[in-house]
Amino acid sequence: MSKVLRVKGLRVRYPGGDWVLKGLDLEVGKGEVALIVGGTGSGKTTFVRAITCVASKLYHADVEGVVEIGGVKLTDESWEYVKDRIKVVPQNPRAALVYPVVYEDLVSYAYQVYKSKSLAEKAISNVSKVFKISHLLDRHVDQLSGGELRRVSIAKSMISSPDIVVLDEPLMWLDDNGVREVRSAIEILKLYDVAVVVLEHRFKRLLDLADKVLLLKDGVLNPMDGVNTGEDRAGVSITPEKPTAGERDVLLELRDVSLHVGSLSLNRISLKVKRGDKVVVYGLNGSGKTTLFKLIAGVLKPEKGKVVRRAETLYIPQVPYLYFTEGSLSEEARAVGAGHALPGLYSGRALSLDRSPFTLSWGEAIRFIVELSLNSRHELLLLDEPFSGLTYQDREEIGRRLAETSKTVIVAASSTEHLVYLKGFRLVELRDGTLTERGVVR
Ligand SMILES: Nc1ncnc2c1ncn2[C@@H]1O[C@H](COP(=O)(O)OP(=O)(O)OP(=O)(O)O)[C@@H](O)[C@H]1O
Ligand SMILES: [Mg+2]
């Protein structure tokens, strides 16, 4: 089989840093799916930056070794060639779409590629049929479910008919329906002979689609043997018990709160959270968890009802980089009163505290923010889907840290898979705009 992507001895290091990739080899043929698994900060995103020429061009990294796409060896000047041959669907799916309406976005991109209105329209009509997204073209991007958004961004990546499509964490934030949508989109890519590279922490949901599964570790790729395909933990059960009513203070109270934003309406939501409570708000994509968190944090005001907050509250958004406002890790820590906890703040890896938070890998950023919040002066922590884009091991670690703290914690989760890490949490389910007490996760 002819290899569309050939990587030999790839080495990459960022300015002033050590080699992140240390001689990585990979070959992917037409219609093949290579699934790459790797720990937080192992270099997955760096690998994608290297094969798309972005590492040297935008990040000024040193890149050594050979990358061949469609038999053409890349040089520093290959930017233009690579642009249409290899398409990356980014980790944050919202970043793949620029315009508010799906069709507008696709057409403006297709026009850039084809420089002709009729060719652009033809390309869109083709990918819409293939990926079955015709009914989504008139939609506002924010009205798409997570799975639909992924499907649309994968379809968009096919407009220039690339040889290679790279999916960076395609299952992130997706509920079970969304996972199904992405799986079928990957099957379509295969069918159309695209070489597919998937970087995914929730790899167990994709193993059967992969032609090879590789582990990125210590800067090199190796076949991953003995992959455990079953779920590694028994599932969870929800025990319908009443949360214990102690004498502790009520830190948060929502009384009959209602709010409508776009097509979402939250109706007469009530919730009481006491000091030290651990709560998980479970709801599928689009159920309104983030909106609810913004109400709790005071970022949004209810139309009806009342939100009473009796503690300093820290809201940590789904995309960790949106949290950061400062120029360095130490300034971030000081800003929330966690300066005293430096420099032991980030376990597992010595990070330079002068470093910009925006250079952290996704997983590093989440780990850092969680530690920061646990050491902050805030009493009430709101974490919106903190398990997304993390290894199974990191999830376990974060679940443990949140369970241990004496702070009051509210976590959002869109997949029952995540409840495994939240045993002992009180589960409230957000569904059809109402919030229902379900019991305790066991
Ligand atoms: N712009 C940058 N400047 C300096 N160091 C960086 C930069 N981007 C990434 N790094 C470092 O390079 C290493 C690899 O990061 P990378 O983002 O490739 O990891 P990853 O495998 O994608 O992690 P994750 O699963 O958390 O997304 C990490 O140690 C990270 O801190
Ligand atoms: Mg990454």
Task: Give a quick summary of the entry.
The chain is α/β, with parallel strands linked by helices and 442 residues long. Helices cover 27% and strands 29% of the residues.
Can you give keywords for this protein?
442 residues, alpha/beta, Rossmann fold, 2 domains, 7-stranded mixed beta sheet, 6-stranded mixed beta sheet, 12 helices, 20 strands, 27% helix, 29% strand, globular, binds adenosine-5'-triphosphate, binds magnesium ion
Please provide a written account of the structure.
The mean pLDDT is 90. The chain is an alpha/beta fold and 442 residues long. The protein has two domains: 3-223, P-loop containing nucleotide triphosphate hydrolases (Rossmann fold); 238-441, 3-Layer(aba) Sandwich (Rossmann fold), CATH 3.40.50. A seven-stranded mixed beta sheet has the order 11-20-19-14-18-17-16, sandwiched between helices. It has helices spanning 44-51, 54-57, 79-85, 102-114, 117-130, 146-157, 176-191, 289-297, 329-335, 362-374, 392-404, 416-419, and strands spanning 3-13, 19-29, 33-38, 62-69, 72-73, 86-89, 164-168, 195-199, 212-217, 220-223, 238-239, 250-261, 264-274, 278-282, 304-309, 313-316, 380-384, 408-413, 426-431, 434-441. It is globular, with a radius of gyration of 23 Å. It has twelve helices and 20 strands. Bound molecules: adenosine-5'-triphosphate (ATP) and magnesium ion. Adenosine-5'-triphosphate (ATP) is lined by residues 14, 17, 20, 38, 40-46, 59, 359-364.
